[in-house]
Amino acid sequence: MTARLLRFPLIMILTGIAALLMLLPALDALMRGDTSVARAFFYAGLLGLAAVVSVGLAISARVAGREPTDAQHLGSLLLAYLLLPLYLALPLYEGVGNTTYLNAYVEMVSSLTTTGATMFGASGRIVDSLHLWRALVGWGGGLLIWISASAVLAPMSLGGFEVTVRAEPGQDDAVLGRFQRARPARRVALAARTLTPAYLGLTLVLWIALMAGGERAFVALIHAMSTLATSGISSVGGLHNGASGLGGEIVVFGFLLFALSRLTFSSDTVPTARPGLFYDPEFRLGLMLVLTVPLVLFARHWIGSIEVEEAARPAEALRALWGAVFTVLSFLTTTGFESADWSQAQAWSGLGAPGLILMGLAMIGGGVATTAGGVRLLRVYALYLHAYREFERLVHPSSVGRASDSGRRIRRQGAYIAWIFFMLFALTLTAVTALLAMAGLDFEGALIVALAGLSTTGPLISSASDVPIRLIELGGFGKLVFSGAMVLGRVETLALIALINPAAWRE
């Protein structure tokens, strides 16, 4: 039944799901006595359901015997990110009341791509029911990319999988197993049936844990959904403004580890012959960054004050170290939550706004087939292996590299594809930065906004510079460029190139 349903256009299915989800913020607004916002969501939901049912009945006979290909699924995913926010923005536009439809559209693109950048900041123009809608859309966007990575990108050797498989990007790899060789619609149905309960369960567990830590139920739900989706959306201006305190940060820290490697819940995409999470290079590289960067910031305090006599304060030192560790992991997974002790970590290190560090972490990003964005840790690992081998050859030109078949694949062809992707990312970042500079931003602001969009790390906009950038002050052209950057960062440039490759459309 699910496989038959997935023969309909993806944007139609997602519109129907969004229409049903609109009943939740409608009910929330009604319970709060905000009837205008409740009506906006209720009427938009009815409109969406009516449109989906009407179009579905009209094309049901046409799609009955048609089986979408992987390329069609990928194309539908791209169109969904571009067009679905037009519908998602309808209740937000009506609920805010004093904004433009373009602002509402950009807000929904940001939520659906799990970027989490907001047009309205902490201005108070968005009521709690609208914050719930932002978080729901971001949570659904995280589940969407999670399912798509397994059922669409992996069989097409995209999304980071091209580093480990033998096929060229955009083409099927028969070595991937029975799941990837199944029909596309059945594959998507199986992935949705397997991953959705896990996603729901993890969100529920985190929600309960945050409430147990003293957080209000509503705020805890928003932060739980934002953590699993790595969107960084918050109704109180960030996790550090919540009531759960250090205990809440520790719990969120544990759940952010899911964005470092898919092996935290699955056994596929293993780039090493030795099984287990400990041997996963993505997870180990992520942990190394989470430990190394805070220690560098921590040590900078002692180096800078080596000639100054200062009394040791262990409590402040530990707070500064924890603030750095949590914030580094948060930005590495492209979530963007700051620790309540992050200001202490900045003061300890002597860096007012370590923007380059946060930007570098966001650009590296999380693991393959997770909700995190960025270049991805597996690609960085492939480049590291290749560079390490080249240094060995400089010292011992006649040496023979020791590695398994998969290790040689990553070090050679995998590193080549990873380097191509990194160059495409750099070129795209340059082009988006130039377009945003044309839209009126200075160079630093344009670079931060461009990287925030391409790495899907929206909170970077307010954290990477001394003066937070106000997206709402951008012109229409700049907002559209930023929207395009978020979509491109979520789908990835390599997938876009695969879409225009005629070989991907051959059945």
Describe the protein's topology.
Elements lengths: L1 H4 L4 H12 L1 H9 L3 H29 L6 H27 L4 H12 L15 H26 L24 H4 L2 H29 L4 H13 L15 H12 L24 H24 L9 H19 L9 H8 L5 H10 L12 H19 L9 H34 L4 H12 L5 H4 L12 H16 L1 H7 L8
Helix pairs in contact: 2-4, 2-5, 3-4, 3-7, 4-5, 5-6, 5-7, 5-21, 6-7, 6-20, 7-9, 7-10, 9-10, 9-11, 12-13, 12-14, 13-14, 13-15, 16-17, 17-18, 17-20, 18-20
Q: What descriptors fit this protein?
A:
globular; 507 residues; 65% helix; mainly alpha
Structure description:
With 507 residues, the chain is mainly α. The protein has helices at residues 2-5, 10-21, 23-31, 35-63, 70-96, 101-112, 128-153, 178-181, 184-212, 217-229, 245-256, 281-304, 314-332, 342-349, 355-364, 377-395, 405-438, 443-454, 460-463, 476-491, 493-499. It is globular and about 70 Å long. The protein starts with a helix and ends in an 8-residue tail after the last helix. Residues 305-309 have low confidence and may be disordered.
Elements, N to C (H/E) = HHHHHHHHHHHHHHHHHHHHH
Oligomerization category of the chains in this entry: single chain
Task: Tell me the span between the first and last alpha carbons.
Answer: 23 Å
- Average of per-residue pLDDT values: 84
Task: State the major sheet.
Answer: none
| Total beta-strand segments | 0
General form: globular
Uncertain spans, ≥5 residues at pLDDT below 50? 305-309
Helix content: 55-70%
Radius of gyration: 23 Å
Sum this structure up briefly.
This protein has 507 residues and is mainly alpha-helical. It has helices at 2-5, 10-21, 23-31, 35-63, 70-96, 101-112, 128-153, 178-181, 184-212, 217-229, 245-256, 281-304, 314-332, 342-349, 355-364, 377-395, 405-438, 443-454, 460-463, 476-491, 493-499.
